[in-house]
Amino acid sequence: MPFMVLVLLLWLTLTNTGSSESINHVNTTNIPIQLFCGRNAPSNPLNFNENRDSSFNQLRLNLLSNRVLYGTSQDLTGGDSVFTLARCWNYLSVDECVACFDAAVSVLVSCPDGNGAYVLFDNCFVRYESFVDFYTNPHAEQDAGATQFISCGNQSASQLELTYNQTVSAFLLEIRDVTPKISNFYVASAKEITNANATVYAVAQCVESTNQTICETCMNIAYKKLDNCLPSTEGRFFDMACFVRYSETQFFNDNKITDITNVLKDNVIGNSVKVTIVASVIGGVALLLSILISCLLYRQRKKSKKTEQDVDDLEGAIRYNYKDLKLATDNFSEGNILGKGGFGEVYKAILGNKNIVAVKKLHGVHARAKTEFENEVKLISIIRHRNLLRLLGWSSEGSNLLLVLEYIPNGSLDKFLWGARKGTLDWTQRYEIIVGIAKGLAHLHDELHVKIVHRDIKSSNILLSDDFKPKIADFGLARLQREDQTHISTTGYAGTFGYTAPEYALLGVLSDKVDTYSFGVVILETISGRRSTEVVSGTDLLLENTWKLYEKKMHLNIIDEMLDLNQDEQEQVMKIIEIALLCTESPVSNRPTMSEVVLMLREGQLLGNRELTRPTNFVHNQDRRIHIGT
Ligand code: ATP
Ligand code: MG
User: Fold this and answer.
1) 358 Cβ closer than 6 Å to some ligand 1 atom
2) 456 belongs to the catalytic site
3) Stretch 204-225: mean pLDDT, rounded?
4) Which ligand is nearest to the CA of 364?
5) What spacing in Å lies between the alpha carbon of 86 and ligand 1's midpoint?
6) Intrachain domains 34-145 and 414-627 with the same fold
7) What pLDDT sits at residue 369?
8) Residue 348 alpha carbon to ligand 2 centre in Å
9) Where is pLDDT greater, at 216 or 505?
């Protein structure tokens, strides 16, 4: 019997090779199945679009003249860099690939002006971006938050469900295990459903620039998602690292089937076949041995399946038990409190007697549907940037909502400006802090596929690493609040007095420029060592006072007296104060985006001909926090 299985398997694979070449099974209709149009406009859309079009033309030529199914191209003319990529699945001919590419490009260029977009078709994937990382890194930072694409056909198999599910699931398992082991990470295969006069076809392809581990991970996820599609007769999975599709309808030609028998034989999963062959040949004792091996392998597979499950479920963040966090914070003891904020306390916690983390209790955050809360947490936790504080995990048992965060022993910037460690930061450190915050915010605004507006940028939300580099904290918290809490219609928290942009505080108008405004205020605090809410002169708070000094060209007067600056440094500070004033201007359109601020700071590219205008002041309020609609 085991021999029969093996023979049948070999026969199936061999007979599928090279037959009926005359019928073309590739569907070249080319309908988009997933389209993403970036929402952030390039700095110069005209220049950007020209570069995009010329890069696509170049890419098309590459595909055609080099007779390849994958290519990249870029055009960096005039400062608006564009990077393009085309990837066709390996069962296509070059001409079919170019036809798919053409269809994809015509969809992409109809996206409204944005600095990136991609589209997935059944036969190809085409993308353009203003950054290059995605060429070689399927998990580019900028893609954090991008979702996987899964679609299950709505027709169920006509065969006996159990047999169908078992056969296709085993087939997908083979594909999963074999693909990462094949040099070009590509498999096209077919499997007959016993007694059902039906065949299932499958293709899997990991991106060419990846490695075996990333391919394995992607295949594991694809397998799990597609296995859930069964008994549907069709399933597709796509993520930046791989594509897998199975279907009862043949969608590639027989001559494109890959011979996976050798890999299958060496494969651990194939060991069930291998083991039984050994058992048949060497008889009784060996049979017993092989059964034992099979059991062990089975257990091991079950175990590894569980680990994958955990990893997939968490997608970077770890779910903690409330009782473990209670233990780690010594029963949320007063002594472990690092600070208190608008949401509740932050505690120092020691997990498993070794890892120090910070645990933030979220009071007053509406425990929305748990999955929604967890989805937000997952989204935040996959964001990685050296200037953004990492969210490591969460706990949401009952009404207890807790976030587990990277612990930063130095604490927050405010302590270094007017708190216990006042005066300990020199100018270079302060400058690096300003630049780092700008970079972190630019990442949140412009480099992810979901724009995240922090809404509560202030010195206590800037933590300083051991080498005094800034890490922005609480950047996802606004997303954890009910949407209606941040708009004018209801009473709610909308930022902190002294930092919040007037249009947001008064009218609830939210945009990334809300963060630009608060960032401007933080610059002034960092330079002056004073709180934004401090009355500096007469009744003037820091911002108002800085503006008045600027009008008299005396804005150097705001510099922290703890700083001893040379002439060059003073000039640099003056320009940065001007950037801060520009950031706090109204109307909103006067304010630069954070990406522009990074350029201004980094390249000394300053205000140019821009005239500064007086910043709009905010409404004074007794309460430190701003409430709107009351
Ligand atoms: P808000 O609630 O608006 O964010 P806040 O930043 O003052 O206001 P919390 O975020 O609760 O309040 O933080 C309180 C204090 O705890 C911070 O000022 C900071 O000093 C400290 N803190 C917060 N997170 C960490 C962390 N991950 N590592 C070390 N200290 C932290
Ligand atoms: Mg905070």
Assistant:
1) yes
2) yes
3) 92
4) 1
5) 45
6) no
7) 56
8) 14
9) 216
Maximum CA extent, the chain: 99
Planar angle of CA 586, 589, 594, nearest 5 degrees:
100
**Of the options 3.30.200.20, 3.40.50.970, 3.40.50.300, 3.30.470.20, the CATH number for the domain spanning 318-406:** 3.30.200.20
Nearest atom in ligand 1 to the alpha carbon of residue 461 is 6
- In the chain, helix, strand, coil percent, each to 5? 45, 20, 35
Give the distance (Å) from ligand 1 centre to CA of residue 555. 31
The whole-number pLDDT of residue 481 equals 54
pLDDT in tens, 37-50: 988 888 899 999 99
Q: What is the mean pLDDT of residues 352-368?
A: 80
**Ligand 1 and 405: CB distance under 6 A:** yes
If residue 409 lies in a helix (H) or strand (E), which one and from where to where?
none
Is the per-residue pLDDT at 610 higher than 90? no
Tens digit of each residue's pLDDT (9 = 90 or more) over 67-110? 899 999 998 888 889 999 999 999 999 999 999 999 999 999 99
CATH 1.10.510.10 fits 414-627, yes or no: yes
pLDDT at 376: 77
Atom number of ligand 1 nearest to Cα 477: 4
In the chain, what is the straight-line distance between the N-terminal and C-terminal CA atoms, in Å? 78
Any idea which residue has 């001559």 for tokens? Answer: 255
Ligand number nearest CA of 362 is: 1
Q: Are 123 and 100 in contact (CB under 8 A)?
A: yes
In this predicted model, what pLDDT tens digit does every residue of 537-583 receive, in sequence order?
888 889 999 999 999 999 999 999 999 999 999 999 999 999 999 99
Cα 205 to Cα 88: distance, rounded to the nearest angstrom: 10
Q: Where are the domains of the chain?
A: 34-145, 152-270, 318-406, 414-627
Mutate to test the pocket of ligand 1, among 346, 404, 457 (most ligand atoms within 8 A of CB): 346
Domain 34-145 adopts which CATH fold? Killer Toxin P4; Chain A (3.30.430)
Concatenated DSSP letters of 237-287: EEETTEEEEEESS--S-GGG----HHHHHHSSTTHHHHHHHHHHHHHHHHH
Pocket flag, ligand 1, residue 342 (CB < 6 Å): yes
| Predicted TM-score of the model (pTM) | 0.56
The rounded distance, in Å, linking the Cα atoms of 143 and 443 is 11
Check: CB of residue 83 under 8 Å from CB of residue 129: yes
Q: Give me the mean pLDDT over the 200-211 stretch.
A: 92
Query: What is the average per-residue pLDDT within 231-252?
Result: 94
CB 392 within 8 Å of CB 357 = yes
CA 138 – CA 239 distance, rounded (Å) = 8
Cα 471 to ligand 2 centroid, rounded to whole Å: 11
Looking at domain 152-270, its CATH superfamily turns out to be Gnk2 domain, C-X8-C-X2-C motif (3.30.430.20)
Residues 6+ apart with CB under 8 A from 114: 37, 38, 39, 40, 41, 42
Task: Copy the structure tokens of residue 144.
Answer: 């954090």
Overall average pLDDT of the 609-615 stretch: 71
Residue 382 Cβ contacting ligand 1 at under 6 Å: no
